[in-house]
Structure formats: structure tokens, C-alpha cells
Amino acid sequence: MTELNWNQKVNRMKPIYVLLSGLTLATLAGGCASSGVKNPSGVNVTEMRPDERGFVAGTGVESQDIVAVTDKMARGLLGLEPIATAKTPPYIVLEPVVNETRFPINKDIFLTRMQTQLASKSGGRMRFLARDRLAALLKERDAKRAGQFTTDTDPNIQEFKGADYLLTGKLQSLTTKTGAGTSDYVLYTFQLIDARTSVIVWAGDHEIKKQGLEDAAYR
Amino acid sequence: MRRAIFPLILGLAAFWLAGCATERTVPLKLTGDPIVDGENAITNGPARDRVLWEYRTALAAMRRGQFDLAKRHLDDAIARISSVYGKDAAARKSRGTFSAEAKKTFLGEPYERVMAWYLRAILYWRDGEPDNARACFRSGQLADSDTENKAWASDYVLLDYLDGYVTEKLGGDGADAIKRASRAAQQWKPPTFRTNANVLVFIDYGSGPAKFATGSYAEQLRFRPQPSHSRNALARAAGTTGKAVPYDDLLFQATTRGGRVMDHVLANKAVFKSATDTFGNVALITGAALTTHRETEVAGLATMGAGLIGKIFSSAANPAADIRAWDNLPQFLSFVALELPPGSQTLTVDFLDDAGRILGGQSRVVTFDVPAGGRDKVIYVSDKSTTPQSQ
């Protein structure tokens, strides 16, 4: 058997080198690929419309939900017959929304937006009473009555208006969480109640369902 | 060519190791003050640990009566843990074979996430927003759902009990919630709702579970108890005493969830590490044997090279479990509802050992004003709270 010199051995082994080098590079590249980070420098501040879904999202109550719900409710109220045909604009008081969901929220945000929508679009057909400012209003009136502040009218006359209607709402939710993800259904209901008779003269609702699944690293 | 092959392989390996090396982080200078250190870590520490430090700092702030600070940190942490759906670069990286699990953004194990919701609920209730507190209790209970085999899912006694308590306070029916709480109770059944109680005392004590990693490559996450003498508590005010029994035990909660999805990922990483190590050993030995014969000398060198690569891959694979932990958590959670007259009051909380003896020097004193008009006064006391304290 003829003994092979080094170059002959290398030539015979060439396919092995090629294969080995290829495998090595492919594996190394594959290993490092897992450490790639999307947007390593962050993302610039992006101005978005409040009614569009952003790229940072959960399954809870978000701005687009508030906009959708309050727009729908405001439209419903504006078309309401007792308000549209009332000879004098009715006075409405906003009552705090009841939150029965699993999401802690600023409950007043719904009614605040509905109030501004209704006030701006109703053309004066509805008027709202600032009961949430009652403490400050009473303090002001008492100071006028005590002569601490000036007034053009008799401060002893009761001029705070009574409400014709109460506008209130409730948020309820149903949640499911399994290995397939988290699903949250939220039902928003609002009512306009006649303050004299307790009759519910209008009710509207809106439903939103969202689902999501966390990365396996967090499960 | 023979001279070139080893430098080539080693050069590639070095290049790869350098590319995948752990990022450099400047170590945080700790002062020993949990709030100063926490604020510093939140601002200057790695972004992936931000939620962890927010948890720790918030709890430390609550124990000092700095509730606004606690609120700020908990709100930020909860906003983060509530919006982790979909693609997450850090999480994807942590699942990679060559990255540690601790590369992911820390959100905490379920018992840690539950505690973020629980503490935020206390703060909402304290601010006169019981329905938002109830929302937090519900989200907390949800964070404990989806356990392996569905055993011990959503089984925090206080979360259901307080959900029902708020519902009753708001004029609803909390009967279902107290039934769930009673079913989940191990040793201590919660009492019936005292809706006329106007002072609600949240008490926690003991030291929460510590995390450690076990397994051949530290790929298995485990929990162990931390030493603590507090096993029970009594709350006294204006001649009234309430038993602050341990309704919930965080060690029990941490250890009864079963495996995580991530445990399977780590197990696969461990298999890869083990397999490449074995391959490396076999290839090195076989290659060495082949090099002893002139005809197979080159094949032997190539085999040794492959073995070396296997060893490098094995050493670079990182199946280590993430043992970052919210390390100032209590072990036991309790709640006492008292009915006290309006005006200035002093609450003393005594902590008891296993034998029911009061632990000397551990009692905590809180002074507060009970509001007139039926609004609830919410007090938070821990065996690690500063004392005396005004709330």
C-alpha cells in the first residue's frame, strides 16, 4: 500500500472540510440569530388617533374603546325623542359609572367624553349640571352669602338647578384564560333615567371582546 | 492546510462567542436603603429588570407609609405586565438556546404578579375607589389561573373574599365570592362580611419564597421558604381585637402551580447542552484515536475539530432558569375588619410565633383618623413596616 503524503490526504478529505466548515458557519449563524433584537434603538414617539389600536396593547379598556363607546352612546342620546322634542332643554346629571370588570379604570372618563360630545353636538338641546363641583359651588355661595365675595344677585335665593335626568353606566366583564390565551369580553351599558319617575327612558350598550396570548417565556 | 484548520475553527468560535457574549452592565451601587436603591435601579439598571425593581420599591414604600410612591411604581409595573401579548423580542431571546432565561423582561412568576395586583388593590381602596380595588382583586385571581392540571388555580382566599366584600359594600351580593374563598381556604376560613366595619386592616408577615435553580444545568426553577418567626398576628384598637390569621401563604402558592411552559423550553436547552457535550467527548476521543494512524490522521483531526465545536456549543448553551425574585415579599397575607368610632385611633399589631406567643420587639403601631360619614379607612401593616407610623 502506497503511503499518502499530506497534500494527498488533504485532497481526499476536502469534502469533509467543506461540509464541516459549512455546518459550522450555518450553526454559528443560527445560534447568534436568536439574539437579534427588533428595534434595538427604540421606536420614535408616534402620534396616533385615540380611536385607533396602537402597537402597545393589552386586552383591557383602551382609548379606542372609550371613543367607540362614547360616540355610539352620544349618537343614541341625541336621537332620543323626549330630548329632541323637549320645549326647554332638560338638565342632566352624570352619575359615576359602576366598574364591575377586572380592569381598574378612571370611570369618569366615559361620562366626561360623552358630556363633551353631547354638549358640543346637541346644539343646546341638553344641559349638564356640575354636581361633581358641588363642594366648590357651595363654598362660593356661602362666601357670597357671608359677604366675603361680591354678587350681582341675591345670594340667598336658591338657584342650583335640579336634574331632569340622570345619566349613568356600568362596565361588566367576562374573562377566560387558558393555554390558548386570555380572552376579555367587556359590556358597556348606559342609561338615562327620569329623575322624577325613575323610568329608564333610554339604554344603550356596546360590547368589545379581545384576545391575546403571552410569549411562552412568560407562561 | 493542517496548520490553518485549528486557527480557523478557533477563530470562528471566538467570533461567535464574542458576538453572543452577555452584554456588559454597570453594576448598581447599593446603599442599603431599599427605596434609594430601587429608584436608582429603575432609572439606571437594565430595562429588563425594571418591573422587578418597581415591585420591590413599591412594597418598601408601602412599608414606610409612602403610598403615593408605591402607587406610581405599581401602576407602571402593572401597565407593563398587562400588555405583553404578541411578539416580544426579549422573551424570544430568552427562549434561544444560547441565552439565559433571565434575558427576558422580568414580569414575575404568577405569585409575584398576583401580589402587584393585591397591593394596588389596597391602594385603590385606600383612595376611596373600592370598585377599582375589586377589579385588581379579580385580575390578581386571574393571574393565578391556568395552572398545570388546573389544580390550585385561582385559589387565593383573600382575593375572592375581598372581591365579595367590596361587592357587599357597594350594595351587591358577594355570596358566590365568599363561597369560593371558603372552598379555597386550607386552615383558616374567612369570616362573614362585616359591612358595617369602617376600618379595614391589611396585614402581611413572614418572608416570601426564595427562588433557586436545580437540575444538571440549573434549568429547573424551585422555591424554598425563608426563615421567619411570624406565623400569626393580632390587631388591637380601641379595645377591639381582630385575629389576623394567615389566609394566604405565598410559598404554598408558588409551589402548587405545577410546571411552566418555559420549563419545557429550558429542558430542551438542557438536552441540547448535554447532547453536544456528549458528542464533543466522543468526537474528541475518537479523533484522538484516529490521529494515531497515518492513514486516518487527517480524519482524526477533523473529528477532533468537530468534537471541539461540540464542546464549545455545549458550554455556550444556557438552560439556566431565571431566579430573579421579588425578594421582599411577605409569606402570609391577612385581613381584619374593625368597627371603630370616628376620630383619632391607634392600631397595634402584634406578631405571633408558631406557639402563639407574641414576638417581642416586632409589634407595629399605626395612628390614623377614622372619617365620619361611613367612608372606609384602609390601613396597611407589615411586620417589616416602620413603626410608629401615621396613615
Question: What does this 3D model show about the protein?
Answer:
The complex is a heterodimer of chains A (219) and B (391). In chain A, a hairpin with a 2-residue loop joins strand 4 (165-178) and strand 5 (181-194). The longest helix of chain A is centred in the N-terminal third of the chain and has 28 residues, at 6-33. By secondary structure, chain A is an alpha/beta fold. In chain A, strands 1, 2, 3, 4, 5 and 6 form a six-stranded mixed sheet that branches. Helix content of chain A is 34%, strand content 23%. The radius of gyration of chain A is 33 Å and the shape is elongated. In chain A, helix 2 (63-78) crosses helix 4 (108-121). The longest helix of chain B has 30 residues, at 261-290. Chain B starts with a helix and ends with a strand. The radius of gyration of chain B is 27 Å and the shape is elongated. Chain B contains twelve helices and eleven strands. Chain B is of the alpha+beta class and 391 residues long. Helix content of chain B is 45%, strand content 16%. A five-stranded mixed sheet of chain B has the order 5-4-8-9-11, with no helix packed on it. Chain B has a four-stranded mixed sheet with strand order 6-7-1-10.
What is the CA-CA span between the terminal residues of chain B?
78 Å
Quickly give the structural class of chain B: alpha+beta
Q: Largest interface, with Cβ-Cβ < 8 Å? A: A-B, 51 and 62 residues
Quaternary arrangement of the chains shown?
heterodimer
Query: Helix and strand string of chain B, N-terminal first?
Result: HHHHHHHHHEEEEEEHHHEEEEE
Cα-atom Rg of chain B, whole angstroms? 27 Å
Reconstruct the topology from this structure.
The complex is a heterodimer of chains A (219) and B (391).
Chain A: H1 6-33, H2 63-78, H3 81-84, E1 91-94, E2 98-100, H4 108-121, E3 127-129, H5 134-145, E4 165-178, E5 181-194, E6 200-212
Parallel strand pairs in A: 1-3, 1-4, 2-4
Antiparallel strand pairs in A: 4-5, 5-6
Chain B: H1 2-20, H2 34-44, H3 50-63, H4 67-81, H5 89-95, H6 110-126, H7 130-143, H8 157-169, H9 175-184, E1 199-205, E2 210-214, E3 220-224, E4 232-237, E5 240-244, E6 248-249, H10 250-255, H11 261-290, H12 297-316, E7 332-338, E8 343-352, E9 364-370, E10 377-382, E11 389-390
Parallel strand pairs in B: 1-10, 9-11
Antiparallel strand pairs in B: 1-7, 2-3, 4-5, 4-8, 6-7, 8-9
Helix pairs in contact in B: 1-12, 2-3, 3-4, 4-6, 6-7, 7-8, 8-9, 11-12
